[in-house]
Structures are given as structure tokens and as C-alpha cells.
Write a structure and sequence with these properties.
It comes from Oreochromis niloticus. The chain has helices at about 1-20, 75-95, 200-240; strands at about 25-30, 35-40, 45-50, 55, 105-110, 120-130, 135-140, 145, 150-155, 155-160, 165-170, 180-185, 195-200. By secondary structure, the chain is α+β, with helices and mostly antiparallel strands. Strand 12 and strand 13 (about 195-200) form a beta hairpin. Bound molecules: 2-acetamido-2-deoxy-beta-D-glucopyranose (NAG). The site of 2-acetamido-2-deoxy-beta-D-glucopyranose (NAG) has 4 residues, from loops.
Length: about 240
């Protein structure tokens, strides 16, 4: 089931890039308690304003030679946020406080970035999509203890249908038997949506057994064939 969801997600990504179009996006938005200013390309964040750290962040690795929005990028994001809050106030008055549309996340998936190898550093990903308004809060546990370090979350990325996607990541080192969870909170949810990830023994041994069994059976059949061939060859020589 987990695998199927992952494949669906991947095929969705592929279909976007297969049509040969790129999508460049810039989003600036706000609510009373939250603000976002982000530039994206093809579903990835190129840069965003971190209003907690008070700086503009370029999350991509250096080898992609990332774009830079210049010196005043953070300051202009702050200015935009103020304008947005101002506009929001005016709009709310003008439209007489319309009821807020609320869509709970339609899907939450948890999976690892890399194939699991015990003791090898990896990243757990909690992929949350289909919600409105942004944002969601994502919290992590390891063996039922709250995890406070090593996690991060993307800024909300708009989907084509007007809902949002957010991805939270947790650095972890898989150890057999450890149980992780990500819990998602959203305005439209009365209780958190929780997904569990268990580090299982099957993670590493499964792919190993299949090929070696096939190889063993194949080798045995081959040797039987050679033996039979030799037998008939010798038999044939005896007769003539
Ligand atoms: C997310 O966390 C913040 C800070 O703890 C809190 O103010 C906010 O209400 C939370 N949002 C949701 C949807 O639970």
C-alpha cells in the first residue's frame, strides 16, 4: 500500500515534466498569523523568505548554481507581507467577513528518501497535500518520544486545484525496530492525522534473497543440463 502511494506520487511528477513545459511560480500570501513569500520552479522551491530566521533562504544544493534574488530579497518580502495584511483587512471588510473555505489534507504519505540500510543516514519524508488554507503543522515522534531536532518543512506549494502541498523532512539513522510517526495538524482537522513508519528487517534482506535464489536454481538447472549432455555424449560414443 505504501509503495503504491509512492508510485502514484512519482508518476504524477513524471507527467508534469513529460509535457515539456516548465512552470515558474511566485507566491506571496498571508493570513493573520502566517505569511509566505516563495519563488518556485517545476514544483521545487528556488527561494523563500523565512520570517522566523529573518532571511531569504535558497534551499537547493549549490551544484544547481541557484538563482539569487539579490540583496533586498528578504526586506521586500517583509514589505509585501505588510501590504498583504493591509489588503486582507480591507478585503475582509469589503466582503463582510466571508466564511473561510476549509479543506483538510486529502493525503499524507510517509516514506524514506533513500533505500533503508541499517546504520546509514537517511531522511524520512512526510508529504502532505490537498489542504486549504496553508499551512499545516507537522510534528515527529521516534518511539513515541517527541523529536525536536533534525526536522524541517517546506513553504506551502500551490497545487493546480488551489490547494497546497507541504513536505516535512526528518534526518534519521535507521535502526531495526525503531518506530517513527509524523502528525499533521490543520485548521480543518479536529485531531491530528498521523502516519507511522517502522524500520523493518525486510527493508534490507528482501531484495537480497530473490536474486540469489534465482541464481542458485538457474545454476543448478544448468549443471543438470551439462551432466545430462555429457551422459548422452558418452552413451552415444559407446554405441558407435
Ligand atoms: C501550528 O502551530 C502554531 C504554533 O504552535 C499554532 O499557533 C497554530 O495554531 C498551529 N496550527 C494548527 C493548524 O494547528
Amino acid at each position: 500500500m505504501k509503495m503504491k502511494e509512492l508510485l502514484l506520487f512519482l508518476s504524477c511528477v513524471l507527467s508534469v515534466s513529460a509535457d515539456g513545459q516548465h512552470s515558474d511560480i511566485s507566491i506571496a500570501g498571508c493570513s493573520d498569523s502566517y505569511g509566505e513569500h516563495m519563488y518556485g520552479l517545476d514544483g521545487e522551491e528556488v527561494g523563500y523568505a523565512d520570517f522566523n530566521k529573518k532571511e531569504f533562504i535558497y534551499p537547493q544544493p549549490p551544484f544547481i548554481d541557484p538563482l539569487n534574488y539579490g540583496e533586498g530579497a528578504y526586506e521586500s518580502a517583509v514589505a509585501n507581507l505588510q501590504i498583504c495584511r493591509q489588503n486582507l483587512k480591507v478585503d475582509l471588510q469589503a466582503y463582510k467577513n466571508p466564511p473561510l473555505q476549509r479543506d483538510a489534507p486529502s493525503a499524507v504519505m510517509i516514506y524514506t528518501r533513500d533505500e533503508v540500510e541499517f546504520g546509514e543516514k537517511n531522511t524520512l519524508i512526510c508529504h502532505v497535500t490537498g489542504f486549504y488554507p496553508a499551512p499545516v503543522n507537522v510534528s515527529w515522534t521516534k518511539n513515541e518520544q517527541k523529536v525536536t531536532q533534525g526536522s524541517s518543512i517546506n513553504t506551502p506549494y500551490p497545487n493546480k486545484d488551489g490547494t497546497f502541498t507541504q513536505i516535512s523532512r526528518l534526518q534519521f539513522t535507521p535502526q531495526l525496530g525503531d518506530v517513527y510517526s509524523c502528525a499533521v495538524q490543520h485548521l480543518a482537522l479536529t485531531q491530528a492525522l498521523t502516519k507511522i513508519y517502522e524500520v523493518e528487517a525486510s527493508a534490507r534482506s528482501d531484495p537480497g534473497v530473490g536474486p540469489s535464489v534465482f541464481c542458485g536454481v538457474g545454476l543448478t538447472l544448468g549443471l543438470v543440463g551439462v551432466a545430462a549432455g555429457t551422459f548422452f555424449l558418452v552413451k552415444g560414443n559407446e554405441c558407435s
